[in-house]
Amino acid sequence: MKLNSGQLPWKGSLPNPPSYPALDGDITCDCLIVGGGMGGAMAAYRMSLGGADTVLIDKRAIGTGSSHANTGLLQIANDKSLTACINTFGEENGVLFYKLCRQGIRRILELPEQLRIDPQIIGRSSLLYASTPEDVPALRQEHSNLVAHGFDSDFWEQDKISAHYSFTKPAALYSRGDAETNPFRTVHSLIDKARSNGVRIYEHTRARHYEYSADGVGCITDKGRIFAKNVIFSMGYETQEMKKDRGAELINTYAIMTKPIKNFPKWHENSLIWETARPYLYFRTTPDGRIIAGGKDEQLTDPEQREIRVLSQGRRLLEELEALFPEIHGIEAEYSWGAVFGSTRDGLPYMGPHPEYPHCYFIEGYGGNGTVYSMIAAELLADTIAGNYRRELELFSLTRTSKPNPSPAIRA
Fold first, then answer.
1. Other CB atoms closer than 10 Å to residue 411's CB: what's the count?
2. Using one digit for the tens of pLDDT, what is the confidence trace for 326-352?
3. pLDDT tens across 149-174, in order?
4. Residues near 229 by Cβ (< 8 Å), separated by ≥ 6?
5. What crossing angle do the helices spanning 91-109 and 82-89 adopt, rounded to 10°?
6. How many alpha carbons fall within 13 Å on the CB side of residue 296?
């Protein structure tokens, strides 16, 4: 699957990333991780902390799949609001989901002190604005639910928005506890640290075939065989080529990164910005004075068609950015790209075991909060593989067909 099109922005931020050999020979391990993107990196790092004998393989170079197109927004709030989660899954499970996301971001914000390569993870607040006046009542209800369940969020009226930004909107929620990151550096910093903790890393190593037995899984590659007691599949959207999840949908999404801006617009605390409309637009700043804008999602097309759409959708994103911040009219995009993006129909990611794949676990962080989901999955799966089953995984079951129903005793 061709995951990305256009000019991707992150690789130049780490000019000489660590490299790793291809597998050549037969090896054994306690846990094999398939995929060297964000989910695999999080899992490898977390498994290394527990001392498990772990191997990670990727058919590409590390961090050059979907994670290379990631725009690096990390939020507690999700594509599906807390209100909608409560209505769909019940109050306990809806709140549990949001609390797991908050816990995941807190874990991510702790990473820079633990890693050898700076992942450029920065704490941020978020502004969620009402796209139309008709969205204001739902935004008020969302604020009420967030505050009632202990989330740090303020309701802003129109005049407060215009006092802090170059634009005005009918209303907004200003929430704290979010973050931004450089995804390419984050993936490499996690895997570098995992390797220093004993995880064996192999790039350009394609898994050709799997053999399942009572004792574990055999992974056949081009030049060797890996026998693992457990396997974590973290292959992103390409998981759908291995097993089709009926509740998953793949689409195209687009993003731009501007050239550095000398006279930055009025932008309170360099917050993350997004909107209530679906599909939504989103915006963030970078430490070197650029702006990232993303959105304009559309149905998945063939890769050649997406290459053409990158140019037109990039121009539309630039127009949206200039409309929001008129004082930067005339800015240029240095990078424009498109990528495959996955979501689920019920708004929850997939993570955990699957009955058709013994000794195997999956990380499918589908949705706009994939990096946070990867941290959640890494925590839950590492504990489960170590023998401490985490019942929260039932919330994200790969075989769910109705409302998730984990034990009432679960708390984030």
1. 9
2. 999 999 999 999 999 999 999 999 999
3. 999 999 999 999 999 999 999 999 99
4. 29, 30, 31, 215, 216, 359
5. 140
6. 24
Provide the whole-model pTM: 0.96
The span from the CA of 278 to the CA of 301, in Å, is 20
Backbone φ and ψ of 6, nearest 5°: 90, -160
Q: Which residue has the tokens 């109050």?
A: 91
Cβ(179)–Cβ(122) under 8 Å?
A: yes
pLDDT recorded at residue 410: 37
Give, in order, the Cα–Cα distances in Å from 14 to each of 11, 68, 185, 262, 397: 6, 12, 7, 23, 36
CA 128-155-289 angle, 5° bins? 40
The phi, psi pair for 90, rounded to 5°, reads 95, 155
The whole-angstrom separation of Cα 208 and Cα 75 is 36
Whether 408 has a pLDDT exceeding 60, the answer reads no
CA dist list (Å): 120 to 63, 136, 185, 255, 287: 15, 34, 7, 20, 9
CB 245, CB 47: distance < 8 Å: no
Amino acid at 387: G
- Looking up tokens 């990473």 gives 111
Q: Could you count the other beta carbons within 10 Å of the beta carbon of residue 12? A: 9
Judge whether 219 and 228 are in contact, CB under 8 Å.
Answer: yes
- Our CA dihedral for 47, 48, 52, 57, rounded to 10 degrees, sits at 80
Q: How far is the CA of 307 from the CAs of 7, 54, 291, 313, in angstroms?
A: 10, 37, 22, 10
How many Cα atoms are found within 13 Å in the side-chain-facing hemisphere of 339? 24
Q: Is the peptide bond before 358 cis (omega within 30 degrees of 0)?
A: no
Separation of alpha carbons 174 and 188, rounded Å: 32
* Calpha distance 48→54 (Å, rounded): 7
Which long-range contacts does 141-144 make (Cβ < 8 Å, 24+ apart)?
A: 141/83, 142/81, 142/82, 142/83, 142/173, 143/173
pLDDT in tens, 251-282: 999 999 999 999 999 999 999 999 999 999 99
